[in-house]
Amino acid sequence: MKNKAMALAIGLTALSNIQVTAQAASVDAGRDAFETCRGCHSAPGYSNVYPTYYVPKIGGQVAAYTVAALTAYKESNRPHGTMMANTYDLSEQKIADIAAYLATNADGSKLANANGGDAKNGEQLAAACLACHNDDTKDGAANPRLAGQHANYMERAMQEYQSGARKNALMQSMLQGLSADEIKDIAAYFTSLKGLTATK
Ligand code: HEC
Ligand code: HEC
After folding, report:
1. Which of 116, 118, 131 minimizes the C-alpha distance to 170?
2. What gap in Å lies between CA 64 and CA 93, rounded to an integer?
3. 167 CB less than 6 Å from ligand 1?
4. How do residues 120-155 score in pLDDT, each as one tens digit?
5. How far is the CA of 30 from the centre of ligand 2 (A)?
6. C-alpha of residue 26 to centroid of ligand 1, in Å
């Protein structure tokens, strides 16, 4: 009986070791996998066309959030044609590798594009958001960093949560009732902070 329990325990240990190996994310593999993405994400101030907004900065982003975002495009829960095309064949492993690489890549261009919104008013409106979007990148948290992100990209993202085009119940409820002007001011506030960069 004792031996059986022991054998089971050893078996479980071996199994969990295998899982750990399979899931360990590799920054080097992530850098390689990211080559096809550089044309857009390593060009500071590069714009999406129709509608026009800046390609988001993802250098220094929280890894768990990058995994969630790429998985959402892959599973068509975020309606963006290019990003859906760029993720449909990415394995979970590749997504984890890319996320690990991006989390360590925070030295690219810091240039952030403002939107003319009222950052002071935005700061007050954002008080309720800082519990999650506070740049505290503690392990495992999937809350994205917003500090230093391009303003018009954030506006677009918030509108898509509001409309449900980006499927995320939490963010939809957090943004419910905010007007277009309020969203603009909140984006202006986060843009004014130091944080994310374009990838190197
Ligand atoms: C043709 C330009 C282009 C290419 C190539 C591209 N992206 Fe993107 N990426 C974008 C745009 C534009 C968005 C914003 C989409 C939206 O509004 O949801 C985006 C969004 C993202 C996001 C979400 C950012 C956030 O804050 O939620 C991540 C992560 C990302 N891309 C990673 C990648 C990776 C990894 C690749 C390569 C496998 C890649 N991108 C290739 C243009 C591109
Ligand atoms: C309880 C935690 C929490 C609170 C509070 C919260 N958020 Fe979020 N936010 C998240 C998470 C988690 C995501 C990622 C959702 C996803 O995977 O699409 C997110 C995503 C976002 C994004 C998209 C970022 C990107 O890179 O595309 C923006 C913009 C945003 N939130 C703004 C806000 C604003 C403004 C508020 C306050 C009105 C707020 N959030 C309140 C957790 C939170």
Report:
1. 131
2. 13
3. no
4. 999 999 999 998 998 766 655 789 999 999 999 999
5. 25
6. 20
